[in-house]
Amino acid sequence: MRQQLSLEPEIPVILLGGHGSVGTPLKQLLLAENRRVYTVDCDDPMPENLRGTRVILIDVARKGALEQ
After folding, report:
1. Residue 68 domain-assigned?
2. pTM for this predicted structure
3. How far is CA 60 from each of CA 22, 51, 52, 63, rounded to the nearest angstrom?
4. What is the pLDDT of residues 36-52, one digit of tens each?
5. C-beta of residue 33 within 8 angstroms of C-beta of residue 43
6. Residue 44: inside a domain, yes or no?
7. How many domains does the chain fold into?
């Protein structure tokens, strides 16, 4: 995904739905690549410390989101 989007590895990733059965393994994979990963579920607020920061936002519940 990083290569497809040409995004630098230091850009943090926000996983929407990242605490579930799909998001958890994806989070582990991204952490293994030394990414900063934040998980957000439906009742969670977005990370305030990332306001105004360039991020990668992945909604793991969106159909086809992980096929790329």
Report:
1. no
2. 0.74
3. 7, 21, 22, 8
4. 999 988 788 888 999 89
5. no
6. yes
7. 1
